[in-house]
Amino acid sequence: MEKFAQIAAQTDSSAAPKSRRLHGHAAHQLGKAIVSGVFLPGEKLPGEIEGSDALGISRTAYREATRMLTAKGMLVSRPKIGTLVCPRDGWNLLDPDILSWFFQSDPSEDFIRDLFELRMIVEPAAAGLAALKRTDEQLEEMTQSLNDMEKYTLATEEGRSADRNFHDIILAATNNEVLISLSSGIGAAVRWTTIYKQRETTLPRDPIPDHRRVLDAIAAKDSEGAKSACITLLLLAHEDTKLSM
Fold it and tell me: Considering the entire predicted model, what is its pTM?
């Protein structure tokens, strides 16, 4: 029961909307506990009776919560053994929920670096392809998203949603279904790093001009220019994130 007391202590009520179904909220609590090291890889979770009693939910809700985490690669059920925490290299680290739990649990500098390395591999190439393949409608959507970012600022949910849309549309404009499939994870990384950078202070600089240069290059169908502008955007964003740690 001691570890469930730690879960309760770590749970941020603002991260668990009242509308969240019980098993979803339980999955959030357990997932964050696993990410933060309350339960370690290879460790066995409490059984349904103990776990459901400790979290104040039904056995069915507890079972559904563990199933959700199993689908994300965080848990595995072994016959006659029980439910075990999987090694971290088996987790779906681009799952939006898992990313949110990392950022709510104070991510390490190594994890931040890994995220930006992934973005550096994917997004400049995507921007270069988008410059060649984008439609006029997609360019208009990118422009509107950037205008909304500037209007609402990244200190608001509206502004962060516009930021995510901007990056999503760039991936969509590649017309490459494999790249597009990464949009959920990339978008979550964009959202949570932006929130993380502002958790104690305002952003150290205005990121709108960096985004504007990416947009201008895509509008001009300048593939190399779009890649270069995106690289600069990511390098500066990474530096801002490191400063906030």
Answer: 0.84
Burial class (CB in 10 A: 0-12, 13-18, 19+), 39: buried
Contact by Cβ (8 Å): 193, 233? no
Per the rule left: phi > 0, alpha: psi between -120 and 50, beta: everything else, 222 is: beta
Alpha-carbon separation of residue 230 from 100, 107, 125, 165, 192 (angstroms): 24, 24, 9, 15, 19
Please choose, from the candidates 173, 174, 187, the residue with its C-alpha nearest in 3D space to the C-alpha of residue 100: 187
The rounded distance, in Å, linking the Cα atoms of 210 and 68 is 38
User: What are the angstrom distances between the C-alpha of 59 and each of 5, 7, 46, 73, 120?
Assistant: 18, 18, 12, 21, 43
**Contact yes or no for 3/51 (Cβ under 8 A):** no
Burial of 85 (0-12, 13-18, 19+ CB in 10 A): buried
In a 10 Å sphere around its CB, with 0-12 CB exposed, 13-18 middle and 19+ buried, how is residue 12 labelled? Answer: exposed
Tell me if 82 sits within 8 A of 29, measured CB to CB. Answer: no
**What confidence tier does 198 reach under pLDDT thresholds 50, 70, 90?**
confident
3-state SS, 21-53, equals CHHHHHHHHHHHHHHCCCCCCCCECCCHHHHHH
Domains of the chain, CATH where assigned: 2-90 (1.10.10.10), 107-244 (1.20.120.530)
For residue 6, pLDDT beyond 80 = no
Model confidence at 203, pLDDT cuts 50, 70, 90, reads confident
Spatial contact of 83 and 76, defined as CB atoms under 8 Å apart: yes
DSSP letter, residue 204: S
